[in-house]
Design a protein that fits this description.
Length: 122
């Protein structure tokens, strides 16, 4: 039995990946409407990279649930709200487990992105 799956770790990481995907989409939409030298481009890249890091922690055979109601709900939140919720979901992760050895960097990245998003007025 996969103990990380039994305690909901993979589902938690899947939720983090979904939150980060939505945040990246929203930031890139705002960046596309901004000037070429806007710091939104940097934030968008950072969120996209955090999404990639979270996705890379998931097992290869893990499939994200497709919940239409959840996706609509995510669209109503700001990027800062999405980033904050993703960071909160990392708190109970068993980062000491070998499968999550790079999870600590995800937590650090999320904290940096939250600070940057706040600085940009999100």
């Amino acid at each position: 039995m996969d103990t990380l799956n039994a305690d909901g770790t993979w589902d938690r990481l899947g939720s983090i990946a979904q939150l980060l995907h939505q945040a990246a989409t929203q930031v890139w939409t705002d960046a596309d409407a901004a000037a070429a030298d806007s710091p939104l481009h940097d934030l968008g890249l950072g969120v996209y990279l955090a999404h990639s890091r979270a996705s890379a922690l998931l097992p290869d055979d893990y499939e994200l649930p497709e919940d239409v109601d959840l996706l609509v709900d995510l669209e109503e939140r700001t990027p800062l709200q999405l980033l904050t919720e993703a960071e909160e979901l990392t708190r109970p992760l068993p980062l000491h487990q070998p499968d999550l050895v790079h999870g600590s960097q995800l937590v650090v990245d999320l904290c940096d992105l939250i600070r940057e998003a706040r600085g940009l007025g999100y």
